[in-house]
Amino acid sequence: MSSALILDRDGVLLAQETGKYITRLPDVHFEIGALEAVVKLSKEYDHTVVITNQACINKGLTTLKEVERIHGWISDAVRRRNGHIDAFYVCPHRPEENCPCRKPKNGLLLTAMEEFDIDPTKSVVVGDSNRDLEMALSLQFPFVLLKSGEGQETLDHIDLSRRMYGFSVFDTLFDFAYKLG
Q: Would 37 disulfide with which of 97, 107, 145, 174, CB 3.0-4.6 Å?
């Protein structure tokens, strides 16, 4: 079985204005240090995958083609620096559609596990929201909460029982990659 770095997209890899979707390539900006971090981390794991909720697709704010174009741009930026992202898993559904792939449900993580033969004990999920934490918990993956994006608010309001899970907290993906803080 293989190891994997499993990343959320918005607030982890990409900077995102609170309450706004990233719907066009010109709106794409990496979180400070995230590009360098994902390049470094992708060399430490067999696979690097991104799992992201993108309700903006089914809300008609963007298209799947544009989201795939954004993901191609991200992959190219990482590859040009000798890193790799093996796959992007996208849930296009709105919350009220109650699909099995929208985080905090684990449908996309199960798909990634099957496609890459991922061992949770050799892997880590990195996110900035309770949705990411719940997904990781559901399949017993170690979890890293970043304070970037929604992370600080998540940390401030997280259920005490979830804190007992023993997840790590870092300010940014860069800090996690270089074990700062």
A: 174
